[in-house]
From TrEMBL, chain A:
Name assigned to this protein: ABC transporter ATP-binding protein
Similarity comment: Belongs to the ABC transporter superfamily. Macrolide exporter (TC 3.A.1.122) family.
Keyword Cell inner membrane appears in the UniProt entry: yes
Any matching Pfam family: ABC_tran
One GO term describing the cellular component: membrane protein complex
ABC transporter domain: residues covered: 6-234
Record-linked Gene3D superfamilies: P-loop containing nucleotide triphosphate hydrolases (3.40.50.300)
Keywords attached to this entry: ATP-binding, Cell inner membrane, Cell membrane, Membrane, Nucleotide-binding, Transport
One GO MF term: ATP binding
Superkingdom of this protein's organism: Bacteria
């Protein structure tokens, strides 16, 4: 059996101290293999977002082990986690989170800027990423000039422009109508077929149906894990 | 792999991002740096004008000549106090100083009066200065044309005179004057020389508005006594003025029969001393004004910090995005720091520009020449950059230390 890309063991997370403390995660075990497409579902407060933040190295667990490519993430400091995100992770958010008053091109090339790519290389890669999400013609438009679906596609282009190992999507279709949502999900499936591991938080079963594995959270623990047998037939 | 070239380009990009952000909020940016603009402009203007004033004062004093002792009867500048008026000097005092004091280059007696000069219907009221040819050895004041007094003329008390430029212009309309004869206080006087222009005196008054005659002529024809009111002593460069001053004091005390423990009834000014006093006064004034102006620079820096803190709060989400994408703390820090520094440097540049305009407008009013003091311009600019770093650091660090999750959730 091959080593999983991500391995969580006994992850706990609590907020606050003493009597006011709140246990968001109460021991989460999870293995994610390279190339997986995992949807995380659950009611609000079930711990799914906290898990996603920990998986994306945006947050640190209070206890337990997180191994990414065999390395202990929980031991890394703030900047080391930032460098890990820069190299291996791409993020797509519910609220798109594009820089305002900044062109699609400049939004997409932002991660490359932090990676230190040269300008011509940045432009080329950003253009290619915009092309893959079908927005090549819109490269000089600012978020205000783009529709919600287009903005989310720019955000996806920004997430994949660095050719990350893992794409983390937090309710990527939460602000979109069903037609736009399908487009986004097809894009994510497409990137997954090209080898990118996709982790997605959603509360919509239709969107979760695109994933190969669906993890259900309840009260800070994993309630059950479903496998979508018909995966690959969908989309 | 990251190369230095790429780093340079990254910071170039950060620089461009900062410029873009400043341009997006042009009015706000301008108001932010207004304090720096005013501070820099004030500091540069004050220091430049102050230094120009100091230089002008020094210039005027050195035009009087250095290493000159001026001996007057009485205490201090005024005659001061009650009691009998201290006696004037006479020619014996002048000769005594000349012969008995070591290190004396030349000694010129002086007696002054005023009168109206008349030439072919032109009238000009002026100062009449009776002295000897030593007057031109004590101080550097060359003749523009003509000659100085001959010793025969001095001994005979002849009515010959050397005129200043102002008298030349007003009495002779700048025309041929040497060999001409004009009337002054009832006597006829031959012009034998014209002085070169000297300009305004340090304490007001036109130094060129003067008629110089042999002292004997002035004493005999005008003042009617043998008194000498001022003695000018030129000190040899090889001797110290302080030492010569002390010897002259001893000599004059003896000659004027001043008893042990009694105060001098004359005083000796060292022009260098006056120069030093005035210079240190103007320098002190310059420093005080610069200090006041510097306070506004600090206030300006606080203004920058204020706006940068607001900007950090406003852009919390943006910072969250950058952090999520993989920006390390230092990169976020740099972005905000660069923005603050670019802002304050721009403010500094505008301030320097304003200062040049202010100096150009004010220097004619203050009667000092227009000057460009490169040093203070550079210092003020560097200070504005440093202010950007110092006051930009706190907000920048705050941005850099934001938690990415909280920042992303920020509305």
């Amino acid at each position: 059996m091959t080593e999983p890309l991500i391995r969580l063991r006994g992850i706990t997370k609590s907020y606050g101290e003493g009597a006011n403390s709140f246990q968001a995660l109460r021991g989460v075990d999870m293995d994610i293999m390279k190339g997986d497409f995992v949807a995380v579902m659950g009611a609000s407060g079930s711990g799914k977002s906290t898990t996603m933040n920990i998986l994306g190295c945006l947050d640190v667990p209070s206890g337990g082990e997180y191994l990414f490519r065999g390395h202990h993430v929980e031991e890394l400091n703030r900047d080391q986690r930032a460098l890990l995100r820069r190299k291996y992770f791409g993020f797509v958010f519910q609220g798109f989170n594009l820089l305002a008053r900044t062109s699609a091109m400049e939004n997409v090339e932002l991660p490359l800027l932090y990676r230190g790519d040269a300008k011509t290389e940045r432009r080329r890669a950003a253009m290619e990423a915009l092309d893959r999400v079908g927005l090549k013609e819109w490269w000089d438009h600012t978020p205000a000039e783009l529709s919600g679906g287009q903005q989310q596609r720019v955000a996806i282009a920004r997430a994949i422009v660095t050719r990350p190992e893992v794409l983390l999507a937090d309710e990527p279709t939460g602000n979109l109508d069903s037609a736009r949502s399908r487009e986004i999900m097809e894009l994510l499936s497409d990137f997954n077929r090209n080898g990118i591991t996709v982790l997605m938080v959603t509360h919509e079963p239709e969107m979760a149906a695109f994933a190969r594995t669906v993890v259900h959270f309840r009260d800070g623990v994993i309630e059950r894990i479903d496998s979508n047998a018909q995966h690959g037939a969908v989309g | 792999m990251r190369s230095t070239g790429l780093w340079a380009e990254m910071y170039g990009t950060v620089f461009l991002l900062a410029l873009r952000s400043i341009r997006r909020h042009l009015l706000r940016s301008f108001l932010t740096v207004l304090g720096i603009v005013i501070g820099v402009a004030a500091v540069v203007t004050m220091v430049t004008l102050g230094n120009a004033t100091t230089a002008a004062v020094q210039n005027q004093i050195s035009s009087l000549g250095t290493n000159i002792l001026q001996i007057r009867p009485g205490q201090g500048f005024g005659r001061g106090g009650g009691g009998p008026r201290p006696p004037n000097f006479d020619m014996d005092d002048v000769r005594a100083i000349e012969q008995q004091i070591a290190g004396v280059k030349a000694v010129a007696p002086q007696v002054q009066t005023s009168g109206t000069a008349i030439f072919e219907g032109a009238n000009w009221s002026t100062t009449i200065n009776g002295t000897s040819s030593a007057y031109f050895q004590v101080q550097p004041w060359p003749l523009a044309s003509g000659r100085s007094f001959l010793s025969s003329e001095e001994q005979a008390g002849k009515a010959v005179c050397i005129i200043g430029n102002t008298v030349h212009q007003n009495l002779f309309r700048g025309g041929e004057a040497i060999g001409q004869r004009f009337r002054v206080k009832g006597i006829s006087c031959d012009v034998i020389g014209i002085l070169s222009t000297r300009g305004q005196a340090g304490f007001g008054g036109d130094q060129d508005d003067v008629v110089i005659m042999p002292i004997k002529t002035v004493q005999r024809r005008f003042t009617g006594n043998q008194d000498v009111s001022v003695i000018l002593v030129g000190v040899d460069d090889a001797y110290s003025t302080t030492q010569v001053q002390a010897s002259i004091t001893d000599l004059l005390r003896e000659r004027r029969k001043i008893g042990e423990g009694k105060e001098d009834n004359f005083n000796i000014f060292d022009t260098k001393q006056i120069s030093d006093t005035l210079t240190s006064t103007t320098t002190l004034m310059t420093r005080i004004m610069a200090a006041v102006a510097a306070i506004s620079l600090i206030v300006g820096g606080i203004g920058i910090m204020n706006i940068m803190l607001v900007s950090v709060t406003e852009r919390t989400r943006e910072i969250g995005i950058r952090l999520a994408i993989g920006a390390v703390s230092r990169e976020v820090l740099m972005q905000f720091l660069v923005e603050a520094v670019v802002l304050s440097c721009l403010g500094g540049l505008i301030g320097l520009l304003l200062a040049q305009i202010a100096i150009a407008l004010l220097s004619p009013l203050m009667q000092v020449p227009w000057t460009f003091d490169a040093q203070i311009n550079i210092i003020a600019f560097v200070i504005s950059a440093v202010i950007g770093v110092v006051f930009g650091y706190f907000p920048a660090r705050r941005a850099a230390n934001l938690n990415p999750i909280d920042a992303l959730r920020h509305e």
